[in-house]
Amino acid sequence: MESLGVLLLHPMNAYLEQELDRRCRLHRFWEAPPGAPRDEFLRAHAGSIRAVVGNASYGADAALIDALPALEIVASFSVGIDRVDLAKCRERGIRVTNTPDVLTDDVADLAVGLAIAVLRRIPQADRYVRAGQWKAKGDYALTTRLSGKRVAILGLGRIGLAVAKRAEAFGCSISYHSRSEKPFPNYKFYANVVDLAANCDALIVACSLNAETYHIVNRDVINALGPEGVLINIGRGAHVDEPELVSALVEKRLGGAGVDVYENEPFAPEQLFGLDNVVLVPHVGSDTEETCRAMADLVLANLVAHASNKQIVTPVI
Amino acid sequence: MGTAAGEPPFHPAVLFIRRPGAPFANAMLQRFHVLDSLASGEPLAAFLAAAAAMPDPPRAAVIMGGGVIHADVAFLDAVPSICCLVSTAAGVNHIDLAECARRGVGVANSGTDYSVDVADHAVGMLVDVLRCVSAAERFVRRGLWPVQEDYALGSTLRGKRVGIIGLGNIGSLLAKRLEAFGCIIHYNSRRPKDSVPHKYFPDVHDLASESDVLVVACALNKETHHIVGKDVLEALGTDGIVINIGRGASIDEVELVRALKEGRIAGAGLDVFENEPAVPSDLLSMDNVVLTPHSAVFTLESRSDLCEHLICNLEAFFSGEPLLTPALP
Hints:
By secondary structure, chain A is α/β, with parallel strands linked by helices.
């Protein structure tokens, strides 16, 4: 692997970066900002870059792929690969890998943790205590129970199923929408997302982002979820029409939201910062020491396999 | 309760000893003559004396928890007509059960009404502490995400050994939920529970040394006062987390704060404190703790269940029937 030229698109994990540096010929893309420095960098190194490592926010788009004539593999430090131009990769015969399974539990844990946080207002109650309001104003307001609520899941893949399993432990009923019905008779399938939203208390976005699922949570879905309903997004920001989400929350047409992903990261909508019925976290779905380590090892394993002409571990294409 | 035709319905007098903002009064007013401890603005002693001096003094009292009053010998002496106490909490540590038993005063608690909400809240706090939810929230709301890029990594739940002190209603519901997150359940209680597959530890110190998370979910009594102290915290270790959804006094709060300050444990989720609503000021600036104002019980659903339950216990008493959820010493 020592001769493998790897382009790391952005700092993402210290251990991964160290290992790539130690075991390959590592180039750090952010050290060549757009303009003259980047042109110079590409002139000097494009011909030797055979691998790109990106993540949920930084991927190999068409322009980058075109600029790297020797590119053979794109390994993403993420399970979602919506930032990778798959069509272009197929055209060029470039392999693409991601990091499924190792992060499933963490993302599902956060989804349910966010649901509890929003319904039970844990971060808000914490703020209340830190601001001295418990002494000054007495008990915090009543919140609403999670157990027994109707939970709807958009996308019943690995993460969606893991969310369902956790929600079931709280006595929640499970409904879902996906491209086709799945063999889970205990989970109610809805072919229509608006119907799904109208018949649940909490809607959790857990599908992959593609042309069909862009803005799948739109004004109609948000209105169907309603003033008692709660939206939890642990998918991609672009799954949700963010301006519609913001206005629904501000106007109280939507009961609450737990958000881990945004249309324009790292910018979360400031209009939400003053609201008490939202919980906003900065894309931390898989951000634990254990999982990031496992994701990094999987990226490395994929690169090693490719470099030694062995079977790639977690190919997308 | 049947009444003769034409007479007003019989509304037995009930003492209601409460904190400001308590909501049960409306439901009780429909069926009982409620003597509200806060209505007159008088100090409690005067209020009790006035109630005792009534021509038909109250035989039942509803008592809120949370330090409003201690229903002890002095209280029972002040209103000797009382033969039934109903606590609005599952906890009855504010009631002298032994003294009540001696006097034949029946005591009822809230039963399991709260349990599911407390269990849910405990899971929420555990995820919050391990995954830094509240802390990361502050990071976003302060506008730091665009400036500092990433928030620090948290710790995964899968495989964490959770030691639950007290495997009653709340502890059992909590165990069921955490298993779905891949946690391994260990427990301590007065006696092992045969029907339960989890590993039992007769000693809390041993439980702590084989746990990554220690959850206090037990009732407060003589044996459980400060059951989590310096030794137990040391056994839990520097990666350990403490969650308290029982009573503040089950943990030596001074030692806990010291351990957090000195990094001898990794974090804590606390819903209860030794001197509510006072919270040790050192905790208020810590990012590795989550603090909630004894709100694990406070949902619309449990409030409505609790109201109904309270009324049912009172009606049972006044009809000469057994209390629904007696609390025994």
